[in-house]
Amino acid sequence: MQHRTISGKILYTSRKPGREGQERGREQFTWTIHGDGSRTIRALCEIDEPDPTVLRDVTCSFGADDRPTDCFVRLTIGDRFMGAGIFAASHFRFTDPDAQAHPDYDIWVTADDDALFLNGGVGGYMQTWYELTELTRR
Question: Which residues contact 127 (CB under 8 A, 6 or more apart)?
Fold first, then answer.
């Protein structure tokens, strides 16, 4: 099967008093789903308000097994380039032998010697998600 494409736009709106419903940013995205089940998302995210503006370019790919294969993120704040990163990730799933006690916990870590936590979550009744938002390597 040839790939298929899904694209759309998400509006970021305000709920601040006096600005309810006003656009404060937008995100344009495209998913490409390949015949083998792997997929790639591309997103351009723009936040206009509050100052400073934010521009984020993201391209992430996932294998047919839902494991991330690569990710590129570029961040600009206030029209100033802040940085970019390319990530390769490994996926791990922790399960409870007594499946009624705790839902599966999925985590993704950097695919390097440091194996740093990137993101993870618990499904089922817990529905929690954790994500690395800041990282400094010296």
Answer: none
